[in-house]
Amino acid sequence: MAEMDNYDRSILKHLQDDGRMTNLQLAERIHLSAPQTLRRVRMLEERKIIRGYVAQVEAEAIGLGVTAFVNLSLDREQFRNVREVERNIMAFPDIIECHTISGDFDYILKVVAPDLKSLSQFLTDRLMQVPGVASLRSMICMEEIKPVSSLPIS
Hints:
sequence-specific DNA binding; Arc Repressor Mutant, subunit A; 2 domains; 5 helices; alpha+beta; Alpha-Beta Plaits; 4-stranded antiparallel beta sheet; single chain
């Protein structure tokens, strides 16, 4: 882990809670001057500790009523270019997260769709057609209990 002091950790905690706060508001909360705070934020951004800023959008409000977690296995016998498969996966906007995992599958994907029929069509007609994909197993999310949250900063 990159070296960070208590000010840096405090900056991360506050920005995770409210990424839209002004530099002046942040400075007041961490008890540093605005220029020192801005310098530290920029340094955290340059070091890729802060990866970016986003708005968290309610999926159902924009017509994406189904979320699924999809386990994906690669066909290593027929296809060996893993990075090409990953590039194909990253090109699908329906896939909002992708993680390499250990165990029986190679990846776990978080996929959103308007409805079950659309999800089924995406998995069958698009994702399964990616060269190198051997199999999928999907699990439908019934209810989101804890949405995307802040990382614990010690």
